[in-house]
Design brief:
- This protein is α/β, with parallel strands linked by helices.
- Helices cover 31% and strands 19% of the residues.
- It has 5 helices and 7 strands.
- A 7-stranded mixed sheet has the order 3-2-1-4-5-7-6, covered by helices on one side.
- It starts with a helix and ends in a 9-residue tail after the last strand.
- The N terminus is likely disordered.
Length: 198
């Protein structure tokens, strides 16, 4: 039984005390046993780790270099952010809605010795501010990529590189497509915004 169901059950049982069930033993509610709080809403995608060979190729395709700021949307266990920090010394930010993934990513960054240049945020990626990114990585689903497209184009600076593992963005022709370990990697570069007529 999930924590949410248990909490609802306890609330319902607690409400029954007003129905003449007083005198019953209080209901024991176990502690959270060290687990993180639940996400604010259901995640858009399940956690499926990107193989390390694909992570390495994604960073190469994105042409990550010192001075870049990398944001990984749906960062899971943090492996893309941690690898970028280790290999290139870049500052990286991982965004994930699941607090358990954030805890795992922070532990992985600490174990790798890059906790000072990485940050993991429990946020909804549709509400998160990632406008400072020069590189964005993601392993989401086609529907999520498509919903993100307007935000990516609006919030990111021209020249920002976007790399997606496995799924493209409908209606946006990639600048490059690469195969790695039997998987497809897509690269887009945010275009210059058209100038407004005066």
């Amino acid at each position: 039984m999930g924590i949410w169901k248990a909490a609802v059950g306890v609330a319902l049982l607690g409400g029954l005390s007003g129905l003449g069930l007083q005198g019953e033993e209080p209901i024991y509610v176990p502690p959270n046993l060290g687990r993180a709080d639940l996400p604010s809403r259901a995640p858009d995608v399940p956690f499926v780790p990107t193989p390390q060979e694909v992570v390495d190729t994604m960073l190469e395709v994105a042409d990550v270099k010192p001075g870049d700021v990398l944001y990984d949307l749906g960062s899971g266990d943090g492996r893309i952010v941690v690898t970028a920090a280790q290999r290139f010394g870049v500052r990286g930010v991982g965004i994930d809605i699941n607090p358990e993934r954030i805890q795992e990513a922070e532990a992985n960054a600490k174990a790798a010795g890059v906790q000072d240049i990485t940050d993991f945020r429990q946020e909804d990626l549709f509400k998160a501010d990632f406008g400072e990114a020069t590189v964005v990585t993601m392993y989401l689903l086609p529907s999520v990529n498509n919903r993100l497209r307007p935000k990516l184009l609006k919030d990111l600076k021209p020249g920002t590189r976007i790399v997606s593992h496995a799924f493209d963005i409908e209606g946006w022709e990639p600048d490059r497509v690469v195969e790695a370990d039997g998987r497809t990697i897509y690269l887009w570069v945010v275009p210059e915004r058209p100038s407004r007529a005066r």
